[in-house]
């Protein structure tokens, strides 16, 4: 069997999840021009909540999922209300720093409640892998991918075809105009944060299903930064396509470059790509070229 | 008789030591600092050394983030570059520590220049992401450039020495740290009131206007990155000479956040603030440590809460200060001082 299709397939599967998480970044950025560096911790928290409901209450996966979604929505809205709102109008450094502080707090809390032990999900999806003929997709990756694509499609539909989505788009394009049209921008901020927290939690659950849950799961949240930079900070389609590109590149780098650098390339490759994009085309493939050059 | 603090020229206004009283207070403070090593135990001196390293690094970061407005999430990596350079120069090339330390500063500064280049093209969010990427890439290099850094096993470093005297105790090392902290703080404090410092402030407040009034952004932004990383490198080198070993685990992303926390808690754009911040953020975990240690009998199993508690408190401090006291401890200090200047007749 050829190795290249296999790498491609794994890359695409991973890319689906990246795209979903990147969607959360983009939603927040479009609505509030804030980059949420606590996304990774939202993921970890979501995965742990889902896991706890699954195991402790031995609830079916659907209910666990629902609980997680409600929890994430509340978490996102609360974060916006308590922490981000007082900082509206402050310099961008403060806003970034506050999300970093939030990440640290959430990480500590997660660590405290669930300890640093590694836990694995009970099998939720059927375990047999899918044989595509030219490549084999492990079950975790396959279902993770399907799940991620479904979530992404749902969010895209909400964003494109519902009233709330319309209000969100209006806010993103011009806050004051949206305000004068009777859209409650505050509410849209809160909803955007909720949506972003939900996408992060779902991403966390998928990754938790594939590779287990620990407090270090959130590291992927930072890796996804390269996806949104590649796709463009304010582009949903960019987030999805960027996810696939980074997923594929990362897997290729992991396979072909690991022997040169002694392992671990897969973890650092997205950051190298990130720096290259920033140097060549900082606004990404689909982003608006709005960067002031000074 | 003149009454009140009347300043008649900008030169007077820019003075570091505004009055005789301040000079006397500071003089007494320095004398106390010099007496401390002879009376304090090794643990206190160990903490004071750590505070010293933090002050150097935090002042460096404040020059970049607080004064020039260029956010950096990779400061720990620059500290790491300094640490590794010192270790490699001392162990491989047999440099004396005193030569290796400034070299570490310069290598770090060079690295800072490279990382700073994107700052000419991008800013704000993008720059923050670029420095974050630098942190992870440099961490990767520390771990995987085995031939140079010996990977996760780390490098053992001999303590610095003059002639046959080895600075291998907390007490003797304290004096090296003390002198370097004074040099760094003095340099930084003077830098920010020169043309360069004013250029940094102008860039922070509005880079486009700064360029229009004739400030060469290319030069000053890169200079800010270089100076900041130079200090980080010095802090790293000192630290490595102190703990006598360097491994990649000493410079994680969380350390970068810790330095930023120092700058924010202390007060962005204030040298005094970074000193406060460094002291505060170094003492907080130590106090927590003691608290956990002393309450061990009452609440067994509290140990496992310690690390998460540290994260929570660090994050909480960052969030709390940003939301409630954006100018940090320096501002609180300033308010206390003004209160007592006019006390008891506050109007």
Furnish the topology, listing elements before pairings:
The complex is a heterodimer of chains A (294) and B (347).
Chain A lengths: L2 H30 L6 H18 L4 H24 L7 H23 L15 E2 L4 E2 L1 H23 L1 H11 L1 H6 L4 H27 L7 H13 L4 H26 L3 H16 L14
Chain B lengths: L9 H4 L6 H20 L2 H26 L7 H18 L4 H20 L1 H4 L3 H20 L1 H4 L5 E2 L4 E2 L2 E2 L3 H22 L3 H11 L1 H6 L4 H27 L1 E2 L6 H14 L4 H24 L8 H22 L3 H15 L5
Antiparallel strand pairs in B: 1-4, 2-3
Helix pairs in contact in B: 2-9, 3-9, 3-10, 3-12, 3-13, 3-14, 4-5, 4-7, 4-12, 5-12, 10-12, 13-14, 13-15, 13-16, 14-15, 14-16
Under the CATH scheme, which architecture of chain B would be assigned?
A: Orthogonal Bundle
Secondary-structure element pattern of chain A, one letter each: HHHHEEHHHHHHH
**Separate helix tally of chain A:** 11
What does the largest sheet of chain B look like? 2 strands, antiparallel
Number of H- or I-type helical stretches of chain B: 16
- Strand order, main sheet of chain B: write it out: 1-4
In helices, the fraction of residues of chain A equals over 70%
- Chains forming the largest contact: A-B, 48 and 54 residues
The CATH architecture name of chain A reads Orthogonal Bundle
Taking the alpha carbons of the first and last residues of chain A, their distance comes to 51 Å
Query: Structural class of the helix and strand makeup of chain B?
Result: mainly alpha
Uncertain residue segments of chain B = none
What summary fits the major beta sheet of chain A? 2 strands, antiparallel
List key phrases describing it.
heterodimer; A: mainly alpha; ABC transporter involved in vitamin B12 uptake, BtuC; two-stranded antiparallel sheet; 11 helices; globular; B: 347 residues; mainly alpha; two-stranded antiparallel ribbon; 4 strands; 74% helix
Describe, in plain words, how this protein is organized in 3D.
The complex is a heterodimer of chains A (294) and B (347). Chain A has eleven helices and two strands, in the order H-H-H-H-E-E-H-H-H-H-H-H-H. By secondary structure, chain A is an all-alpha fold. Chain A has a single domain, classed as ABC transporter involved in vitamin B12 uptake, BtuC (Orthogonal Bundle). Chain A has a two-stranded antiparallel ribbon with strand order 1-2. The mean pLDDT of chain A is 84. Chain B has 347 residues and is mainly α. Chain B has one domain: ABC transporter involved in vitamin B12 uptake, BtuC (Orthogonal Bundle). In chain B, helix 3 runs parallel beside helix 9, helix 5 packs antiparallel against helix 12 and helix 13 crosses helix 14. The longest helix of chain B has 27 residues. The two termini of chain B are 21 Å apart. The mean pLDDT of chain B is 86. Classes of the chains: A mainly alpha (294), B mainly alpha (347).
């Amino acid at each position: 069997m050829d190795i290249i299709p296999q790498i491609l397939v794994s890359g695409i599967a991973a890319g689906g999840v990246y795209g979903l998480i990147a969607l959360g970044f983009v939603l927040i950025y479009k609505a509030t021009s804030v980059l949420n560096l606590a996304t990774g911790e939202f993921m970890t928290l979501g995965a742990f909540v889902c896991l706890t409901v699954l195991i402790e209450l031995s609830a079916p996966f659907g209910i666990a999922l629902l609980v997680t979604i409600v929890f994430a929505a509340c978490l996102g809205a609360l974060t916006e209300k308590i922490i981000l709102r007082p900082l509206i109008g402050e310099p961008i450094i403060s806003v970034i720093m506050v999300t970093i502080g939030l990440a640290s707090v959430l990480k500590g809390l997660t660590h405290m409640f669930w300890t640093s032990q590694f836990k694995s999900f009970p099998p939720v999806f059927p375990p047999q892998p899918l044989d595509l003929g030219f490549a084999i997709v492990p079950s975790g990756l396959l279902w993770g991918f399907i799940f991620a694509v479904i979530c992404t499609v749902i969010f895209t539909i909400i964003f494109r075809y519902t009233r709330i989505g319309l209000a969100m788009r209006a806010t993103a394009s011009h806050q004051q105009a949206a305000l004068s049209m009777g859209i409650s921008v505050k509410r849209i901020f809160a909803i955007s944060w909720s949506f972003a927290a939900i996408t992060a939690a779902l991403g966390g659950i998928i990754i938790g299903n594939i590779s287990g849950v620990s407090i270090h799961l959130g590291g992927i949240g930072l890796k996804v930064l390269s996806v949104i930079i590649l796709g463009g900070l304010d582009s949903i389609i960019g987030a999805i396509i960027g996810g696939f590109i980074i997923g594929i590149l990362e897997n290729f780098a992991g396979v072909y470059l690991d022997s040169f650098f002694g392992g671990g390339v897969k973890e650092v490759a997205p950051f190298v790509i990130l720096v290259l994009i920033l140097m060549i085309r900082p606004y990404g493939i689909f982003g608006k070229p709005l960067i002031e050059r000074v | 008789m003149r009454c009140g603090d009347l300043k008649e020229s900008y030169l007077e206004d820019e003075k570091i030591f505004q009055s005789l009283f301040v000079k006397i207070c500071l003089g007494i403070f320095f004398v106390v600092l010099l007496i401390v090593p002879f009376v304090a135990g090794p643990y206190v001196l160990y903490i004071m050394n750590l505070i010293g390293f933090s002050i150097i690094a935090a002042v460096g970061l404040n020059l970049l983030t607080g004064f020039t407005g260029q956010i950096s999430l990779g400061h720990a990596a620059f500290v790491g570059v300094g640490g590794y350079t010192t270790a490699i120069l001392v162990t491989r090339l047999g440099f004396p520590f005193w030569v290796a330390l400034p070299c570490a500063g310069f290598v770090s500064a060079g690295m800072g220049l490279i990382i700073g280049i994107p700052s000419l093209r991008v800013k704000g969010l993008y720059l923050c992401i670029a420095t974050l990427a630098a942190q992870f890439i440099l961490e990767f290099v520390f771990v995987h450039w085995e031939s140079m850094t010996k990977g996760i096993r780390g490098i053992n470093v001999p303590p610095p020495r003059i002639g046959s005297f080895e600075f291998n105790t907390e007490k003797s090392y304290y004096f090296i740290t003390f002198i370097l902290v004074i040099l760094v703080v003095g340099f930084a404090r003077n830098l920010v009131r020169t043309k360069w410092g004013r250029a940094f402030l102008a860039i922070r407040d509005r880079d486009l206007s700064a360029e229009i009034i004739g400030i060469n952004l290319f030069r000053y932004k890169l200079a800010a990155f270089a100076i900041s990383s130079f200090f980080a490198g010095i802090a790293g080198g000192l630290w490595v000479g102190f703990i006598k070993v360097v491994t990649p685990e000493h410079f994680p992303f969380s350390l970068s956040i810790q330095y930023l926390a120092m700058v924010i808690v202390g007060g962005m754009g204030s040298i005094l603030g970074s000193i406060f911040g460094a002291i505060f953020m170094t003492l907080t975990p130590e106090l927590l440590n003691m608290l956990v240690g002393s309450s061990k009998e009452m609440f067994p199993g509290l140990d496992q809460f310690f690390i998460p508690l540290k994260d929570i408190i660090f994050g909480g401090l960052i969030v709390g200060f940003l939301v409630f006291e954006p100018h940090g401890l320096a501002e609180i200090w300033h308010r206390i001082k003004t209160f007592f200047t006019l006390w008891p007749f506050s109007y």
